[in-house]
Amino acid sequence: MGSIDMGQKFKRLKWLGVAIALFTMVIACQSSTPVATDPAATDNPETVSAALVLNGTGASFPLFIYERIFSEYRQQVDPTLSVNYQPTGSAAGIQQVISNTVDFGASDVAMTEAEMAQVESGVVLVPMTAGLVAIAYNLPGETTGLNLSRAALADIFLGKITRWNDPLIVASNPDRTLPDLPLTLVHRSDGSGTTAAVTSHLAAISPEWQTDVGAGLSVAWPAGIGIKANAGVAAQIQQAEGTLGYVEYSYAQRLGLPIAALENQAGSFMTPGPASGAAALLDATMPADLRVFIPDPADESAYPIVTYSWILAYETYADAIKADAVKQVLTWGLTEGQQYSQELGYIPLPEPVVERAIAAVERIQVAN
């Protein structure tokens, strides 16, 4: 990827290690979640009895913002509360909530009415954060600035474009000399909200994709190699020359992966970032049921692949202390916690969305 100084190399290797570690954690994750122990509390029986662990699982997309919110809440507000969050993918998060094996789930696709009807305790959908899906790649000598038209993006994922110097890619990059190199596509192998965001966009811009593949947490991919989790996809792109894939923006940002500018509905080529993401969110109004999807934002300054991500809380909890803890940490995350969004590669929630999300959190109750 051209010449970079040793400091840059060290940072990229460091984040590659983080991605691989996260990927390993996802693979090793079991349906039963370990109980965290606070070493500082072990010598004090009263502190141990007061400590509480909330176990959650689901989307890997919001991992970094959730880790930060839960950590800061513990440090700033309640040192007795630990939140153990496992990034197992959106499909797993939904299933674990239905199975009632966690204290909360997380998904980049809001649960359907049919899925929610299977949860005896009821479900509260809380839009907790929003983010962008980057199209990242690894080309020799390339660090940034690749443009991908809507036609080129669709044909890459349809398996029609298999080399980097394909005329459709070259047409949007007239000032570049693209190599005659095989293009290796990577995609998620697990049920993924990141996949849902990408395939929804592809279905919106390509009638062929809409007819032949469709959109969802999992699809029958016409081409490419399947890899588990955002961390796994990011690590593969980092290591393999000629590779292209989709990954949550914060992962690409941390690894320093080259990111393509995508053609939006207005014909502008936009890269992911706070401003282009915020423009996309403003293109959609949050409905009463808090389920909103933005497959192809119309604003000329919008990045085209953006999604909300939801916490899936129960409407009623048998344990009053646990119910209160869930309400308190989610409310803090929707208010104070939003300040960490931009630095971690996410989009701060618009104020009207925050207000409606807090109102949803207030529906959480203790079971009679």
What's the helix and strand layout?
Blueprint: H1 6-28, H2 45-50, E1 52-58, H3 63-76, E2 81-86, H4 90-99, E3 104-107, H5 113-117, E4 123-137, E5 147-148, H6 150-158, H7 167-171, E6 184-188, H8 193-205, H9 207-212, E7 225-227, H10 229-239, E8 243-248, H11 249-255, E9 261-263, E10 269-270, H12 274-281, E11 306-314, E12 316-317, H13 320-334, E13 346-347, H14 351-361, E14 365-366
Parallel strand pairs: 1-2, 1-3, 5-9, 6-7, 6-8, 12-14
Antiparallel strand pairs: 3-11, 4-8, 4-11, 4-13, 9-10
List descriptors.
nine-stranded mixed sheet, single chain, three-stranded mixed sheet, 39% helix, D-Maltodextrin-Binding Protein, domain 2, 368 residues, alpha/beta, elongated, 2 domains, disordered N terminus, 14 helices
How many whole angstroms does the radius of gyration measure? 21 Å
Number of strands: 14
Anisotropy-based shape:
elongated
**Mind telling me the CATH superfamily name of the largest domain?**
Periplasmic binding protein-like II
Question: Do you know the CATH architecture of the largest domain?
Answer: 3-Layer(aba) Sandwich
At the fold tier of CATH, the topology name of the largest domain is D-Maltodextrin-Binding Protein, domain 2
Can you summarize the main beta sheet? 9 strands, mixed
What is the average of the pLDDT values?
Answer: 89
Q: Can you tell me the number of structural domains?
A: 2
Reading off the top of the CATH hierarchy, the class of the largest domain is best stated as Alpha Beta
**Helical percentage:** 25-40%
Low-confidence stretches: 1-49
Which structural class is indicated by helix and strand composition?
alpha/beta
Please provide the ordered H/E string of secondary-structure elements: HHEHEHEHEEHHEHHEHEHEEHEEHEHE
- The first-to-last residue Cα distance is 61 Å
